[in-house]
Design goal:
The chain is of the alpha/beta class and about 700 residues long. GO terms for molecular function: tRNA (guanine(26)-N2)-dimethyltransferase activity; tRNA binding; zinc ion binding.
């Protein structure tokens, strides 16, 4: 009996200790019965060591060191390091602006110790004098600072809704200053267990708090203004559509704030700092379902994002604008609206950074920010039709009304083909160029901070060169292939547009993009002028083809293709890494994380190998091909000009007597091998 009681007491004590361990890491999580799925998957309490250490792999990225299973149990993709580096850079500048308005300056490792506080002073000389005097102040009078890895009481509260291994959250804690807390959430018990171990491995338990919950429910529970997050990062597997409604409600409130700070006159120094800062939350969203957003399934895109995607050469920028439209549409339901800071299309995904504001009056303008797209199926010409119209009224007011349209007729004015209707999509600028310039400057002055700094500089440099008020773009190969002519160089086409008095720029979303404010008629006139220098054989064009109809019209604009100095953008002249090559083999989206372990990963690889090139015709056996070609008579042999003799791959045998008699019979139509377009001779490869 005493032994039984001692055993029972020890069992209860161990259970209590295990529960307290889990509760320490899952602070704030509703307590309930044990998770059956977690028990079946072998989930262990946080802080305990796994028995199978040999099945784990350690990865170092940035300042974080992450251990994750070698099997595909927790999602991790090394190709998205650029995504994570860019996010750290954006949140750092966002924290600099937000905390600078409160009189707190952040300290970034590798940056020079220069005060970067957003100020608006009336006299610049007064500011310089005050900064000199400020250097001699007592330590207690110095401006407050926030360093990396320290808790800032007035700092940013960050939520990573789908954290997986916790790599992104740990990098925030170790690389971004000015943070109050980082909540790393995931619905998977294995992922949360792994996060707990990685948090302890990187010694950031004071900043990063793992949570196991449904991301939507967690964000819905933080709708109250005092509980909202300053930064929400969503990087799901596939579409983020199920999380957007909760995200726009859980991000912190926006509003205009005026801050004033004065020091005592008794010290002989007085400074008044007045900063106008929009204290709005930052929402970071990644979409990897590019097949849907690029137009392969328009009805699916409508069900997820509320817009029809079109197959277009500008599909990547159209995807960005569809995501921004979806975010603004969901925010409008709660009297909120979005303002894009940065929108990037890279690799196999799109990434948007937006601020979320609250304002009933500003929400009324959202309809005038959206547009439908009319795209010709023949020549690819597109036109935008705004959904709403904003016009000035008496007393400085703005009047909103329905827009008038459509801007085109039932048929394309250039090629006569029909139009497809896409959208609605975001028609306003997709970047805040001032904010992009701040991020670019910070990365350029501290290139050793990120492993992908060169690519970040290249992409952001192209973004700063884009025309902000010109949605979508054409491409060089699209314009040339439409009229069946050779392709002009990028500098020649850009020079022609500049000579004609139009603006033109590149796009970070496509290497051959031509983004211009020139109307489509002027653009096709320039291509007609180029065709005159590189003529097309008109007799080969069908009269119903877009090329024939476009080239049958004489150009009204005489284009000059002399290369101008300003036609070559600065990012191209400096040789920046603007468009990334494939980083590694099989670098696309990884398969969805699943508890099947390594066997499931091997099965996935085998399935990929079997499905590789399944839609392509298999290579023909050389012997079978030679036998098939011998069934076609040689045209040159009939003319007496074939010099190959027995080496010819076609037949030199005379036609069979029955074929000759059939051809000579009056009931059989007289044909010739030379002008028989549908005969087997024409079908044989190389007969000509």
């Amino acid at each position: 009996m005493p032994r039984a009681r001692i055993g029972l007491w020890l069992s209860l004590t161990l259970r209590s200790t295990r529960s307290l361990c889990r509760a320490g890491f899952m602070e704030g999580q509703p307590q309930g019965p044990p998770n059956p799925a977690g028990m079946e998957n072998g989930t262990e309490p946080c802080g305990e060591e796994r028995a199978s250490e040999a099945q784990e792999t350690t990865v170092t990225e940035g300042a974080a060191k992450i251990a994750f299973p070698s099997a595909n149990e927790v999602f991790y993709n090394p190709v998205q390091e650029f995504n994570r580096d860019l996010t750290c850079a954006v949140i750092t500048e966002f924290a600099r602006i937000q905390l600078g308005a409160k009189g707190i300056q952040i300290k970034v490792p590798g940056e020079k110790d220069v005060q970067k506080v957003v100020v608006d002073l009336s006299e610049q000389e007064e500011e310089k004098a005050e900064l000199k005097k400020g250097a001699n102040l007592a330590p207690g009078d110095q401006p407050r600072t926030a360093a990396v890895g320290e808790i800032c009481e007035e700092g940013l509260r960050v939520l990573e809704g789908l954290a997986a291994s916790g790599l992104r959250s740990i990098r925030f804690a170790r690389e971004v200053p000015g943070l109050q807390s980082v909540v790393a959430n995931d619905a998977s018990a294995r992922a949360v267990d792994l996060m707990c171990r990685n948090v302890q491995l990187n010694a950031v338990a004071h900043l990063v708090h793992p949570r196991q919950a449904d991301a939507r429910m967690l964000m819905y529970q933080h709708q109250r203004a005092s509980e909202r997050f300053d930064v929400i990062d969503l990087d799901p597997y596939g579409s983020p559509a199920p999380f957007l409604d909760a995200a726009v409600q859980a991000v912190s409130e926006g509003g205009e704030a005026t801050l004033t700070w004065a020091q005592s006159r008794a010290r002989g120094f007085r400074r008044i700092l007045t900063a106008q800062a929009f204290l709005a939350g930052l929402l970071c969203v990644t979409c990897t379902d590019m097949a849907v957003l690029a137009g392969n399934s328009g009805e699916t895109c409508y069900s997820k994002y509320g817009a029809m995607a079109l197959k277009s050469r500008a599909c990547h920028e159209m995807a960005l604008r569809i995501v921004l439209h979806s975010l603004d549409l969901r925010a409008n339901c709660y009297q909120r609206f979005v303002v894009p800071l940065l929108s990037v299309s890279a690799d196999f995904y799109v990434r948007v950074f937006v601020r979320v504001f609250t304002g009933q009056a500003k929400v009324k303008a959202s309809a005038s920010k959206q547009a439908l797209v009319f795209q010709c199926v023949g020549c690819g010409t597109f036109h935008l039709q705004r959904l709403g119209k904003a016009s000035g009224a008496s007393g400085g007011r703005v009047k909103f009304s329905a827009a008038c349209g459509p801007p085109i007729g039932p048929e394309c004015e250039h090629c006569g083909q029909r139009h497809q209707l896409g959208g609605p999509l975001w028609a306003e600028p997709i970047h805040d160029l001032d904010f992009v310039g701040r991020v670019l400057q910070a990365v350029s002055t501290n290139p050793g901070r990120f492993h992908t700094s060169e690519r970040i500089q290249g992409v952001l440099s192209v973004i700063t060169e884009e025309l902000p008020d010109v949605p979508l773009y054409y491409t060089l190969d699209q314009l040339s292939s439409t009229i069946r002519c050779s392709t002009p160089s990028l500098l020649q086409l850009r020079s022609a547009l500049l000579h004609a008095g139009f603006r033109v720029s590149l796009s970070h979303a496509c290497k051959n993009a031509v983004k211009t404010d020139a109307p489509s008629s002027a653009l096709w006139d320039i291509m007609r002028c180029w065709e005159k220098e590189c003529p097309v054989k008109r007799e080969r064009l069908s009269e119903a083809s877009p090329a024939f109809r476009i080239l049958s019209v004489e150009p009204r604009l005489q284009a000059s293709f002399a290369v101008r100095d300003d036609a070559n953008p600065s990012s191209r002249q400096r040789g920046l890494k603007r468009f990334q090559a494939n980083p590694e083999a099989n670098w696309g989206p990884r398969p969805r994380a699943r508890p099947g372990g390594k066997a499931a990963g091997e099965a996935m690889e085998e399935r990929r190998r079997l499905h590789q090139n399944k839609r392509k015709e298999p290579a023909e056996d050389p012997v079978q091909r030679a036998a098939r070609l011998k069934t076609f008579p040689c045209k040159r042999f009939k003319e007496g000009t074939c010099q190959r003799g027995d080496q010819c791959c076609y037949s030199h045998s005379p036609p069979a007597p029955e074929d000759t008699a059939a051809a000579a019979s009056p009931d059989h139509p007289k044909t010739s091998y030379q002008n028989l377009p549908g005969s087997g001779v024409a079908a044989g490869p190389g007969v000509d």
